[in-house]
Fold this protein.
Amino acid sequence: MAAEVRKNRHAFVLMAPYFLIFFTFTVVPVLMSLALSFTHFNMLEPPRWVGWDNYARLFVQDDVFLIALKNTFLFAFITGPISYVACFLFAWLINELPPKLRALLTLILYAPSIAGNTYLIWQTLFSSDSYGYMNSFLMRWGFIMEPIQWLQDPRYMLGILIMVQLWLSLGTSFLAFIAGLQNVDRTLYEAGALDGVRNRWQELWFITLPTMRPQLMFGAVIQITTAFAVAEISIYMIGFPSVDYAAHTIVTHLVDYGTIRFQMGYASAIATILFAIMLGTNLMTQKLLKKVGE
Amino acid sequence: MRLKLLLRRRLNRSWSVDILLFLLLAGVAVFMAAPLVYTVNRAFMPLDEIFAFPPRFIVRNPTVQNFKDLLNIFSDSWVPFSRYVFNTFFIAIIGTAGHVVIASAAAYPLAKVKFPFRGALFHIVVLSLMFTPYITQVPNYMTISWLGMINSYWAILIPAFGTTLGLYLMKQFMEQIPDALIEAAKIDGASEYRIFWKIVMPIVKPAWLTLIIFSLQNLWTNGSVTSHKYIYSEQLRTVDAVFGQIANGGIARTGPVAAVTLLMMLVPITVFIVTQSNVIQTMSSSGLKD
């Protein structure tokens, strides 16, 4: 063991600063939260052990949680895969363009994510009075007689959120894919052409995708975590809590119990459930990604 | 050389599909460009156009009045505006540089050095991405307060150094470097530190240029969220936090807020253009061959 440590001391020196911070500010709090999920804790009295009670309450008594679960799944299963494919597709298309045009298009496609809250312009677009762009457009052309309350009507909320998220989709993974495409060795394509690769789609499937597997895995994890952890756009676009909980998600439910009702034990249980969902989805996705290029 | 490049580009490509794909790109680009166009136009709109009915998208009589109003607001504040600007740049630059170096240094052994429990350590990193940050806020506040870092930049900087995303990104890119390259350097007598800094980092340049964008954006716009939690002195606040206060002035501040929104976008956009054009340049010089 001591010999093992001495042999790898350079590695440990390189890793020490990062992992010191990482364990203090990420691993320890997460472990604390896991433990707290089995307790009743209101942040004033010391935590009281309650076993699986919080989890049982979530699925048996908490109707709102079930709504949040349904909304989150619907949201994630639509936006996750579409965003993921779009990120790769556009990164790949852009990669073929001449450098100047490519830089410009990258900026434009990434524009929705460039400043933290650009998506709030959708609020102006879907504003509920006749000053909103959508309402004023529809009224001028006679489709509707009076303004629609886009962001207050439970029928439209989730749809609008999905649309906004799709508009935001070319973000982190998109840039990671662009950088990843730079690492693909050009000579592989020439070798592929000699081996009988006929068109761009075969080239994509047999050469580009397999070479980019590390980036594809990274992108998948990022998409899964953003799709299931949706909360911010719901809170800032629709408001919190939303009418009839129509835009309620797992994380907004967690925010409700964690920061408003001070039931930290219960909030921690919600975080653990969310973690389990993401973990399961990730395992499935990584299995699918192993099939790429076969 | 130029001819060879042209020939290479035509490999496995047909014109008809090229045109179709280009049309798709152009269509999506128009949709995505909307916020940029809107922000720029709105910043130069006089008040009567901002509140015009039906609402306008493109400015007709551009004016710089919004920016003048903004200057007036700043001249009233008792902390000089330059102080806020300094704070913002200090946090963004130190935070980004620190994160890129610290995360890359940790990513290299995880990707290329064999040591016990390496796989397990990396799994912990990926798993931690799936735990929502909302739940770690309270323990983190307690830790930061216990370390005596409340009301200082360190409360923002230290956690930013250890963000998970950067390590994961760097590790994925370093994984692609052929082992033979690193073995060869070792045989030549290079130390692990030298290999990391002189061989690995130049090869993964596209990755850390991308990471600079992520980190800077995070510190630039979320700086105010974190600083509300940890920073209480007015003279330590960031531009973003001050702009938030201006926006809270309500509907009368609509003009200056439009100007502010544009100004706040300028720095991330500049950094984006600079780093992205370098990401693209590296392609010809990368030496990734087995």
About this structure: The mean pLDDT of chain B is 83. DSSP finds 15 helices and no strands in chain B. Chain B touches chain A through 95 residues (CB under 8 Å). Residues 9 and 161 of chain B are 40 Å apart (CA to CA).
